[in-house]
């Protein structure tokens, strides 16, 4: 028999397929047009040949017998499970007809464009929504509690996001002379040693540990990193903000901060009015005349000093004021006001968190907090890497602010081995996302005023381009201020995955006039659609990945039946719905996105990947010193003051506490002792699985074998107390509902907490309603509410609810 010819296609793993945020280089082995194997690309600088189980199982994924390969149109009642295959032309015409009808009768804002996480969908769903005329692009998680809140919170105080520096900015990685290995990494609520769900490859941290980097692990569970850490802080879930304030308390009291960075690059020297607690700025008081300068009596130097009113930054006047002190400010109108510095107010806030108080809140011993804070602050350089638990609390923004303050005041911001500012490679921002150049956005500012939640929550109006999930679902039922009539769901399965209170989600979808789903498999959410469009995996498409470093392409390796990529589907519908749509081909769109790089899509495909040169705004380090971050080319940060803001100008404008602090979550033994009396265990969820991503992959046999059942981890002493044996089925219940999970008795969790698996449904069971593949039976989201978000609309109490656990009776099995 003749040997088959094998072609090897180098490409970039991103969804659909592995499900995660991707970036890994892979080699797809093709024989006679068919995928036979996927392996890591050893020459790729991101993953250096290492890939996860989900990538290795791609042959089972792309050729799965249950994969949807032609458009499906509902022919029975919604949820009944009766479908008819139709052509793509019929499908596009049907969707166009339905969307145009809603737009004509109710306005384009009445259709919500809902996305999930992990895939390269953000740009393409915006392209379709904006072409249609709707500002309402939505991430289906309550409080948008995944990554966007952290990005917005960090951007609020430092103008850009930043991440752990593991040398990923350089092709030579650890060998590059510009790189310095961090002496210490704080791993905060993250346990991904071998995969890439959060756009940081877990192996990088392991690489650095092998080279001598010490680990501080902050996690209630005994994780891979906790078991290998120099310091393990086993905190109570949801108390991360208090722990960060405790770190700051040690660092300030022991003067372990970088005084030069604090003085030169933060707004610590800026003045705060004593009577209002607000930053002093020109025009703040009636009649101050917006004078060029305030006259300030410098109590430290004992003579007048001059301050610039534009941002109240100290001007050279022969003396430098101390970071702390009282100042009298004489305004042009003649009025005198008493002021202090931002640093002084910051210190006073931090002083509210002595270690004995923090220990009581977090359950971490004070001596352990002190030792960990000292290790972090005295390690040069040091970095912090965090995970989803930071987002999954209503007080996500002040928590993030406190952690960002740590890397700033210790001088670890945008330095080798620290936390490095992260921008799209070459500033090649995908269509419609913030910072994109040349792309058609929303048709008008008036259009954006109809985006649900943008007028209520400051971060949504300023940084986050999405509609507010909880408000959208409520508006489906109320119809106020306008009706919601349709939903386009792409790369998401909220009934089983990221939808809190999933039965409410089901009722909301059933209430709509039109529901379209784009997916690869029949999910419980897809069963409630009117039409399903079959999407392609990453091996069946062309696309761009410019999210951070490097800039690279996704290259098509195979075709599977009639499946189309997300960008192809949305491009065609956008062209039909918008007479002003300006591109003729997807490649034209790609070329425009890549214009800043000086390469076309074809040229980048040929090159493989590209790193921006030193001195480019998307390449490290110390860009704040070089004028590479701000649009005006001046040194500093992209914040209103041009400084890293310990006192947030924007949060002050939004009527929120401007300085980092701690807020007790809404459903804990501390905030709700009445509930804790009946539901005594802290319920944590969302533990990552190496086999699955959110609700994906339960139908892939190789992966299901690795993680076959929905489990709840419970401590041996607690299990013995409750009469629960390892492997027995139990009910996890609270005042909102209950779900059925299999007990895993393990020392990995503390006695006062259980960790429940999320994202479970059973593809092997009946798909039609009411069964919906058993999606409500083991769905931990039935125990988590919507509308429990933070004051700025962000975050959700996903990691720290309350529950009780008891055995399933024989007649319930």
From TrEMBL:
Q: Could you tell me the superkingdom of the organism this chain comes from? A: Bacteria
Q: Cite the 4Fe-4S Mo/W bis-MGD-type domain residue spans from the record.
A: 10-66
Keyword flag Oxidoreductase: yes
Q: Which InterPro entries match?
A: Acetylene_hydratase, Asp_de-COase-like_dom_sf, MopB_CT_Acetylene-hydratase, MoPterin_dinucl-bd_dom, Mopterin_OxRdtase, Mopterin_OxRdtase_4Fe-4S_dom, Mopterin_OxRdtase_prok_CS, Prok_Mopterin_Oxidored
Cofactor(s) recorded for this entry are: Mo-bis(molybdopterin guanine dinucleotide)
Give the family from UniProt. Answer: Belongs to the prokaryotic molybdopterin-containing oxidoreductase family.
Q: Which PANTHER family match?
A: OXIDOREDUCTASE YYAE-RELATED, TRIMETHYLAMINE-N-OXIDE REDUCTASE
The name this protein goes by in its record: Molybdopterin-dependent oxidoreductase
| Species this protein is from | Anaeroselena agilis
